[in-house]
Write a structure and sequence with these properties.
Blueprint lengths: L5 H4 L7 E3 L5 E3 H22 L11 E5 L5 H13 L9 E3 L4 H10 L3 E3 L4 E5 H15 L11 E7 L4 E10 L2 E11 L4 H15 L1 H10 L1 H17 L10 E5 L2 H10 L4 H6 L2 E2 L2 E2 L18 E2 L3 E5 H25 L1 H4 L3 E7 L6 H11 L4 E3 L7 H9 L6 E5 L3 E9 H6 L5 H7 E3 L6 E11 L4 E3 L2 E7 L8 E9 L11 E9 L11 E7 L5 E7 L3 E5 L16
Parallel strand pairs: 3-6, 7-15, 9-17, 15-16
Antiparallel strand pairs: 1-2, 4-5, 7-8, 8-9, 10-14, 11-12, 13-14, 17-21, 18-20, 18-23, 19-20, 22-25, 23-24, 25-26, 26-27
Helix pairs in contact: 2-3, 5-14, 6-7, 6-8, 7-8, 11-13
Length: 553
């Protein structure tokens, strides 16, 4: 089995296990299913406390996911929500339940209710944030507002992922996607992990593990202090010289004091991380250079050099800027003269240092827009997005999608990406029409970078190729290249298997494969023609494999 590239592994699925605060590994499915059940219980308890009569099937659930997640990751989320019994498999028109303050906002939007096929909606986090930003602008008419024709790049920068989408305003609360969403594992949570690594280097990994396992509440206190220190960096003093400190919980200091016989201050002086060194000797207290800076520990605070903090931030920010520059250059023809704004949302966007770096990098090109509470943008937008009938009118497809199938021998020979070796290996003659075909080919439904309208349906017609076949099996694939010709080397997303009806005419009848594009998740159905047309949609059952997407733990 060939080893996949690291970036391809990240697209496959979520972590199989998530570590609890005490270090215990728990099945990811158990965590999410339990969390969904808890949310449902809290919501229904709230309605009861407020004496609001609501049935479970009258509630619509909005689950937000990063736009860069694969179909498999989004499918797992839907699967777990269904296992938690958030909703029934299919519900018709649902009323939108709002409290009075929300009703006022709803009236301003001009939306009273929505019609949906399900109680469960999987929505993309940057799109939710876009709704929030626009609502904030609507509530402040005297300040800057987007105009029809303007484009903005929405940067949803959270703890796990950096998630970017680019939209064009086409009307009041209507946008279309200009380029395919992009991003990567460059969230602020990785800075926290690096700081924990520094603690492990200073105090010993074994001691840190023991503290985490035996005193999980105190360990959580330490993590919160690291998070608070990270958020304060560059806030008051806009410089990368000097020291920036982390408050040390009393229990942590006492625990570590018992583990060390030597002086902890001297241990800090030996710290080395990303080229930064600590110097505990008082003679060198004010000695500063690009490589040697003081790292101090006094049982109340661990002080790390600002230059080290900046490097930890830059490891993520530089990747965000690099990928953004790459996508802007690639799509320069599409975005030139249209892209005017960059919007920063998500927890990482609250960082003064990140805001400074983004503004400096794009100061001559784009205006940077930051909502009042960027960390809540996705949540606030999701609550409203469920009531907007068509906020995103079209999306750009990130991959080429299609199904495996046979080409006629003439079609295969004419295709520039179907090798002669493949034709010789997979050619066959069907026993129904006595025609020559080539199997293992890739029949394209939509190519990468194509624009698809929301609810757009693409249909392809298939015929039965063998009298012996009892089932129609459709294998769904995606590819990173346009019209790959053959399915070899493409990503298998799943298979749909439908039995042929008893009255299916091998010569005359056909079956049809439909792709439903433009939604947050791609749907595939098979329509079979016998005496009647019967359309079957099969929910893919997603399972963990050896490769995982490390973005949530």
């Amino acid at each position: 089995k060939k080893k996949k590239k690291k970036n391809e592994q990240r697209e496959d699925t979520l972590k199989r296990r998530i570590c609890a605060i005490n270090g215990t590994a728990v099945e990811t499915s158990h965590v999410f299913i339990s969390a969904f059940r808890y949310c449902k219980k809290k919501a229904m308890d709230y309605f009861g406390e407020k004496h609001i009569s609501v049935k479970e099937d009258e509630v619509q659930w909005i689950i937000t996911v990063p736009a860069i997640w694969s179909e498999k990751a989004k499918g797992l989320m839907r699967q777990w929500a269904m296992q938690a019994k958030l909703c029934r498999p299919s519900v018709g028109s649902l009323p939108i339940l709002t409290l009075e303050p929300e009703r006022a906002k709803q009236t301003k939007l001009g939306v009273e209710s929505i019609s949906t096929e399900s109680q469960l909606a999987i929505t993309l986090e940057p799109e939710c944030a876009s709704v929030c930003v626009m609502l904030e602008m609507k509530d402040k008419p005297n300040e800057m507002r987007f105009k029809a024709g303007d484009c903005y790049l929405m940067m949803d920068l959270g703890a796990g992922t950096a998630d970017m989408v680019c939209h064009e305003i086409i009307g009041p609360f209507e946008v279309r996607e200009m380029i395919a969403s992009f991003g990567g594992p460059w969230g602020s949570g990785y800075i926290d992990k690096d700081v924990v690594t520094i603690f492990q280097h200073l105090f010993g990994e074994k001691n840190m593990r023991e503290f985490q396992a035996t005193r999980p509440h105190d360990y959580l206190h330490l993590l919160r202090n690291i998070e608070n220190s990270k958020q304060r960096f560059f806030k008051m003093q806009k410089k990368t010289t000097g020291l920036h400190r982390i408050e040390i919980p009393y229990q942590f200091g006492q625990f570590m004091q018992q583990k060390f016989t030597e002086n902890l201050e001297e241990s800090v002086a030996k710290c080395q991380f990303l080229g930064e060194y600590g110097r505990g000797d008082n003679v060198h207290l004010f000695f500063l250079s690009s490589y040697f800076l003081e790292h101090e520990y006094d049982h109340e605070y661990l002080s790390l050099s600002c230059q080290l903090w900046a490097k930890l931030f830059d490891l993520r920010i530089n990747e965000i800027l690099k990928k953004t520059n790459e996508m802007l250059l690639k799509n320069e023809r599409i975005l030139s003269g249209k892209l005017k704004y960059i919007c920063l949302v998500g927890g990482f966007s609250q960082s003064p240092y990140l805001q400074y770096k983004i503004r400096e990098h794009f100061k001559d090109r784009f205006m940077v827009v930051i909502p009042q509470r960027p960390i809540l943008s996705v949540i606030q937008g999701a609550a409203q997005l469920g009531r907007l009938l068509s906020f995103v009118t079209s999306r750009i497809v990130k991959y080429t999608y299609g199904a495996a199938g046979g080409f006629s021998i003439e079609e295969a020979r004419a295709h520039p990406k179907v090798p002669k070796e493949h034709i010789e290996k997979y050619k066959y003659v069907d026993d129904i029409n006595n025609q020559e075909w080539v199997g293992g080919c890739f029949r394209v439904f939509v190519n990468e970078d194509e624009e698809v309208k929301v609810d757009q349906v693409v249909e392809k017609t298939y015929s039965k190729r063998s009298k012996r076949k009892k089932n129609a099996t459709v294998a769904i694939y995606r590819s990173k290249i346009k019209d790959p010709g053959i399915s070899t080397g493409c990503k298998l997303l799943g298979k749909i298997k439908i039995p042929f009806p008893d009255d299916f005419n091998d010569v005359m009848d056909r079956f049809y494969v439909r792709f439903y594009f433009g939604e947050a998740m791609i749907r595939v159905t098979v329509k079979m023609k016998g005496k009647e047309y019967v359309e079957n949609e099969v929910q893919f059952k997603y399972h963990f494999d050896d490769n995982h997407l490390d973005v949530i733990g």
